[in-house]
Amino acid sequence: MMDDLIRIEHLTKIYERGEVLALNDVSFTVKRGEFLVLLGLSGSGKSTLLRCINRLIEPTAGTIIFDGIDVTRASSRQLRQIRRRMAMIFQQFNLVKRSTVLTNVLSGRLGYVSPAASAIHKFSKQDIDMAMADLDRVGIPEQAYKRADELSGGQQQRVGIARALMQQPDLLMADEPVSALDPATSHSVMQHLETMNREDGVTVIASLHFLSLARRYGTKILALKDGEIVFEGLPTEIDEARFMEIYGEEAKEVEVR
Amino acid sequence: MKKPKKSKSARRYPLLDRLVVLRPRLSAFMLDWASWGYVAYGVMYLLNKYWYLRYVNFYGRLTLPAWAWPVVILATFELVMLSHASGQSIGLNLFGLKLLGPDYAPPTMRQRLHRYVALHLKLPFQPLVLFSDRPLGMLLHDGERAGCMFQVARIKDDLPPEKPGRWYLTYRGLCLAGLFGLTFWLGWKITAINLQMLVDRVSKSSHIWHDLFTPSFTYLTESVNERGHLYSITYYMMETIFMAFFATVTGAIVAFPISFLGARNIMGFNAVGWLIYSVMRTLFNALRSIESILMAVLFAVWVGFGNPFAGALALFLHTIAALGKLYSEQVEAVDPGPLEAIAATGARRWQVVIYGVIPQIIPSYLAFTLYRWDINIRMATVIALVGGGGIGTLLFYFKNEVGRLDDAWNQVGAVIVAIVIIVWILDYISARVREKIG
């Protein structure tokens, strides 16, 4: 199918010499332009799933097809070319704290630039202009020359988004992007993701904790429990019973407005 | 997370897993054997000191006949078996092993006796357990009748809570106290500590103390002997400082790139990475364990006795090893998050190092380098003992002139004052700079 950006078949990941089964025979597809939300408790395998897609974690078994290319069989050179088309943002932002915001954003370009120039921190005028434009887009152009750890949490996550934008990705993976942020900031970050999804046509896979956010932003929902898919469908299809199934009997929905 | 099904017959544990589980038991055994061997050595030494020398032969030395060595080895082996069968030993305690009945009940006397016998009978067949289908960590003698050796960490949730007793009443406390006492006793005798002598012979050194505290600065700026290439204290002070500076800077420059090769998280977890990592770490440790003063012995012969180049080379080599190890540990301690993020953008591994690792480690690298300069200065003051150059050249020259020169000790005093001043000043500078960086 041409409109499938990602096809995952029988993906399995076992950690620690067979002690922990993190993903158990997971199969699904993501269409181009979709905003897929991953739901599930902590430890249900969401982060592992995302990191398997760009092979930050090596899957134990199964295949991942990204835009017709088999990621699981890619050589390290091919893998780098695949990775620069998939951007990723993280729960803890994962910025280099002692570097400037601009350097952090520019590092999103490392997959494209000439290796020799990047070794001496030299970026082309084009790349720097692009970085400033991306910072402008996420609303923090004035912070460009500050050290990353001087910024607030919400600002740091926006730097993360700018770094992702630098990759001009086809796919954006967000690993609990708003778990460390307050509700107001959460929405602003999620809106940036939504804009990328709607206007730039970037396919998004985001793992979230709040069902309300998932309903508001997702076009499709995938729920994991103990490394297996327990629900796949539209956000509107999740009712009380489904919710219990995903989060366990004692769970109660908390809303973020 | 869910555990995979552990069926008894379908899936056997891989050999590696079995070895990993058996490792603490083997380590405990070896440690106990070593400690019983140490006790045997201590007993021999003290017997020699208090009985043989006094009552048998003052000039002699108590040794065992050749046939007795295997007996001692077997006897200590037997002692380990005994302590393991009773479930009480330092090794078992340290490696978190506990002897219990199969139902986690404390072992009975009967089980302990049974275990002691079983250990002897089944010992030769122990390796078979690696290829059998017994549950992980169960050796041949583990079972209903002889009790099982459990790893406390694995079963701690099933154990009834234990009230902590006083440590010196526990078996481990008693053993450690006993071993410490033995070590203290042996150490006192072996190092020939004699406080009486210190008091009785105080008059022998009093004039030296007097001379040292009235230093004579004749040669502060004047050369001692131009023809013999012995210059002034100031000259050697500068030589010392620059020797240490040069060794530190060049050592740090070399250690910087190779420290990444000795870092686990950079080298990855594949076979090649592991090999390079191990080689680098072994090299660092081997070089580090040879004091720079020993290396200077070699270099002094190579480039000439008293040549500061020899000292600088020795300090340089030692600095590479010491900084290499400290640097590598810093690299291993970096926050992995940013590295993951940069790798995810499609960057090469060395780009991850440049953009993710280096910004994180710069402050601690600078601090360690300055600290190393401190150490090198102190080392450079005495490296002349083996011909490495520096201010020690004068120190040992004047010390050897005692008896020929009347004011030799006064001159030594002056050199010591100079050394103290250099070390103080540079200590202060490096402490201030490190404060600023930190």
Secondary-structure map:
The complex is a heterodimer of chains A (257) and B (438).
Chain A: E1 4-15, E2 20-31, E3 35-39, H1 46-53, E4 61-66, E5 69-70, H2 76-83, E6 86-89, H3 101-106, H4 115-119, H5 125-137, H6 153-166, E7 171-175, H7 183-199, E8 203-207, H8 211-217, E9 220-225, E10 228-233, H9 240-247
Parallel strand pairs in A: 3-8, 3-9, 6-7, 7-8
Antiparallel strand pairs in A: 1-2, 1-4, 4-5, 9-10
Helix pairs in contact in A: 5-6, 6-7
Chain B: H1 15-56, H2 68-85, H3 90-94, E1 97-100, H4 109-122, E2 148-151, H5 152-155, H6 171-190, H7 195-200, H8 202-212, H9 233-261, H10 264-267, H11 271-289, H12 292-303, H13 308-332, H14 336-344, H15 349-380, H16 392-400, H17 408-437
Antiparallel strand pairs in B: 1-2
Helix pairs in contact in B: 1-2, 1-6, 2-4, 9-13, 9-15, 9-17, 11-13, 12-13, 13-15, 14-15, 15-17, 16-17
Structure, described:
- The complex is a heterodimer of chains A (257) and B (438).
- Chain A is α/β, with parallel strands linked by helices.
- Chain A has helices at 46-53, 76-83, 101-106, 115-119, 125-137, 153-166, 183-199, 211-217, 240-247; strands at residues 4-15, 20-31, 35-39, 61-66, 69-70, 86-89, 171-175, 203-207, 220-225, 228-233.
- Chain A has a domain at 1-84 and 204-257: P-loop containing nucleotide triphosphate hydrolases (Rossmann fold).
- In chain A, the strands form 2 sheets. Chain A has a 6-stranded mixed beta sheet with strand order 6-7-8-3-9-10, sandwiched between helices.
- Chain A starts with a strand and ends in a 10-residue tail after the last helix.
- Chain B is mainly α.
